Amino acid sequence: MQVNNDVITGRNCVFNLHVHLVFVTKYRRDVFSGRVLIDLEEIFKNVCLDFEAELVEFNGEHDHIHLLVNYPPKIAISNLVNSLKGISSRLIRKKNYPEETFAKLSF
Fold it and tell me: pTM higher than 0.90, yes or no?
């Protein structure tokens, strides 16, 4: 792939697809601390790389997360979102954080 002026060219196509995703915790509970947000950003970057997508921007607060993802047209958004949510939830629960209501964590 070749990138020119924010337009990505593939073999048979030219595209520039971005999606803005907002993940909200169940009942808007305050469960994301600073350490959790840093770990989530790294997890989201790795998942995006697996899908040949790019995490352009990441930001979050205690009860929600914003993602801006640049992705190729061969990826279905539903598959990307399912992987982002599933993998991040599993890996964050696996890490040992001080008891931060992760039993109630659900995107």
Answer: no
Instruction: Say if CB 31 and CB 55 are below 8 A apart.
Output: no
> What's the Cα-to-Cα distance from 15 to each of 18, 56, 77, rounded to whole Å?
10, 16, 15
Name 30's bridge partners: none
Q: Which residue ranges make up each domain of the chain? A: 18-104
Structure tokens at 66: 């914003």
* Residue spans of the chain under pLDDT 50: none
Amino acid (one-letter) located at 5: N
- In our burial notation (b when 16+ CB lie closer than 10 A, e otherwise), range 53-83 reads bebeebebeeeebebebbbeeebeeeebbee
The reply to whether CATH 3.30.70.1290 applies to domain 18-104 is yes
Structure tokens at 67: 């993602």
